[in-house]
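Project outcomes to date are best conveyed with an example. Our students and postdoctoral researchers have been running inverse folding experiments weekly, and each run begins with a structure described purely in tokens. The record below, which covers 203 residues, was selected by the lab manager from last quarter's runs and is presented without edits.
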């Protein structure tokens, strides 16, 4: 498991004290968001995985919604910090780096597929934890005279490439007829292709 992914499920004996209980609930919610999505996520199942009484969800987070928002923000913060680390503090994370944040992007995908745009918006609209907002701000600053609609369209196309690779990597390798053993070399070519597209948008 990557260092940026949610911590493992705590056992009941570990979830003692308010901080431990809250951390256990957030970790369990982060994992389950990516497994079943927000609609199907059960508070009782979540509490059981966290090793706490289900009443703690309401006590600490005001209910299921508050916990889901806390879990999504927790995952987004991990992704934001990891993205800064990978980019050396720059605005643009390296191509295909989304695959290193699988817990966050599974949660993101499940929420979008569930039609829960509001849950995703708690992250996407926050400058402190949103990688896309950081990237879009950089593109606007680097291209002050660009048509804003055109710039945002290019940004969306880049995001679609990154998200598409994350979601469909195995399928894309198969339909591109990549032979076993050639996957790493192929990924490097894909990264170069994505970088050329990104550079066109930032020149």
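After processing, the design step wrote out the following sequence:
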């Amino acid at each position: 498991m990557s260092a940026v992914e949610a911590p493992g499920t705590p056992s009941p004996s570990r979830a003692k004290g308010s901080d431990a209980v809250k951390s256990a609930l957030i970790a369990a919610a982060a994992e389950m968001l990516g497994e079943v999505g927000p609609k199907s996520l059960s508070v009782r199942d979540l509490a059981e995985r966290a090793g706490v009484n289900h009443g703690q969800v309401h006590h600490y987070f005001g209910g299921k919604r508050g916990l889901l928002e806390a879990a999504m923000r927790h995952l987004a913060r991990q992704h934001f910090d990891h993205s800064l680390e990978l980019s050396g503090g720059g605005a643009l994370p390296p191509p295909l780096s989304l695959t290193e944040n699988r817990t966050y992007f599974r949660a993101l995908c499940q929420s979008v597929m569930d039609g829960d745009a509001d849950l995703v918006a708690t992250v996407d609209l926050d400058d402190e934890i949103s990688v896309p907002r950081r990237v879009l701000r950089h593109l606007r600053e680097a291209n002050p005279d660009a048509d804003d609609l055109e710039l945002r369209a290019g940004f969306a196309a880049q995001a679609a490439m990154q998200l598409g690779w994350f979601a469909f990597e195995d399928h894309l390798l198969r339909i591109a007829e990549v032979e076993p053993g050639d996957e790493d070399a192929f990924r490097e070519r894909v990264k170069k292709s994505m970088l050329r597209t990104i550079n066109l948008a930032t020149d």
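Residues 148-175 form the longest helix (28 residues). The chain has a mean pLDDT of 87. The training component of this project remains on track.
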